[in-house]
Amino acid sequence: MFSKSKINDPAQKPADTKPAGSDNRLDSARPDTGMDFKSQAPKSKPPASVLSSDLHVQGNLRTTGDIQVEGTIEGDIRAHLLTVGEGATIKGEVIADDVVINGRVVGRVRGLKVRLTSTARVEGDIIHKTIAIESGAHFEGSVQRQDDPLSGNKTAAKPAQPAQTPAAAPAQKPAETKPAQG
User: What is the pLDDT of residues 18-63, one digit of tens each?
Assistant: First the structure.
């Protein structure tokens, strides 16, 4: 190997020098050496998919990325971040980690963070972990907080079921006594 004195001494050249333009550091980063370029640089996040104002979609949309809707969607949307533009209309269920509504949504909204801006128009239930509703937003429906709003579990329905069970229990008692009599 090289020693410090040989590198700093211009009079002496190492016998096993590589040709100019060849660098050990570059050779070690080549894909055929097994090094992965992704581990050296952080992976950049792709930009949001923009659905323009002249676009009308009939069907469901699903992505792990971000969507910005400016047009009309008739169907369900599932995304990481969903931004509904001021002139946009969505008729269907919206499920996203972050939901920012500037336009109109007719249907259920599920999100960890839901934000209704002053221009938002929502007709449907909102199930959220955190919510912000700006002054001027129009909202018709119910708001329900859940720790995991993205899952399909309806935790609010669970407490209502035990309340209905005692009412059904007296109707079952005569049915239980009939086999004992017969």
Answer: 555 545 544 444 455 555 555 555 677 888 899 999 999 999 999 9
- 3-state secondary structure (DSSP) of residue 125: coil
Domain boundaries, the chain: 49-145
State which amino acid sits at residue 152.
Answer: G
3-state secondary structure of 152: coil
pTM: 0.61
At residue 167, φ and ψ (nearest 5 deg) are -70, -35
Write down the residue that tokens 């269907």 correspond to: 92
Residue 51 burial class via C-beta count within 10 angstroms: exposed 0-12, middle 13-18, buried 19 and up? buried
Cβ neighbors of 156 (< 8 A, separation 6 or more) are 144, 146
